Amino acid sequence: MSDRHPDRSKAGRSRLIPFRNGEAATDRHSRRLRENVAAAEELRAWCAEHGIDMTVTNGGHHWQFRLPTGQVAEWWPSRAKFVWNKQWAKGIHVHDHEQARKLLQKRLPTGGA
Q1: pLDDT digits over 41-95, tens only?
Q2: Which of 92, 98, 95, 82 lies closest to 33, judged by CA?
Q3: Of 51, 29, 43, the residue nearest 112 (C-alpha)
Q4: What end-to-end distance do the CA atoms of the chain give, in Å?
Q5: Kind of pairing, strands 92-93 and 9-10?
Q6: Under a CB-based contact definition with an 8 Å cutoff, are residues 107 and 67 in contact?
Q7: 65 alpha-carbon distance from chain centroid
Q8: Minimal CA–CA distance to 104: which of 56, 59, 48?
Q9: From CA 23, how far away is CA 104, in angstroms rounded?
Q10: Which pLDDT value is given to residue 50?
Q11: Residue 16 falls within a domain, yes or no?
């Protein structure tokens, strides 16, 4: 996963995994990965309730979501890279599973209600 395509937008500051001044980028990425992987089953349950197929591969580094609408989202939590339908140039900077869930919810036909 390279950063050839910088993120076009941001999901905002994470209240679950906040930025820490002075923290090395490698430490921050490891913390992001660890905390999101720990919450994967919670997100998987939400996805199942909403007809979203969620797959986590590569030791938690790559997450895929297949929505009932046919759209596919991919997320790399350690890098905070989230893309819809392989549109790399339209990436969204997403730090935590709750931010990812909100983006998924917006694309559901009923808005996740």
Answers
A1: 999 999 999 999 999 999 999 999 999 999 999 999 999 999 999 999 999 999 9
A2: 95
A3: 51
A4: 33
A5: parallel
A6: yes
A7: 9
A8: 48
A9: 29
A10: 95
A11: no
2 pLDDT higher than 70: no
SS3 content of the chain, % helix, strand, coil (to 5): 35, 20, 45
State how far the alpha carbon of 70 is from the alpha carbons of 7, 42, 65, 66, 73, in Å.
23, 22, 10, 6, 10
Token pair for 44: 């998987």
For the chain, the domain total comes to: 1
**Using CA atoms, how far apart are residues 51 and 67, in angstroms rounded to an integer?**
7
The verdict on residue 80 lying in a domain is yes
pLDDT at 15: 83
pLDDT for 29 equals 87
Amino acid making up residue 12: G
Residue 64 structural domain = 21-107
- How would you write 45-92 as a 3-class SS string? HHHHHCCCEEEEEHHHCEEEEECCCCCEEEEECCCCEEEECCCHHHCE
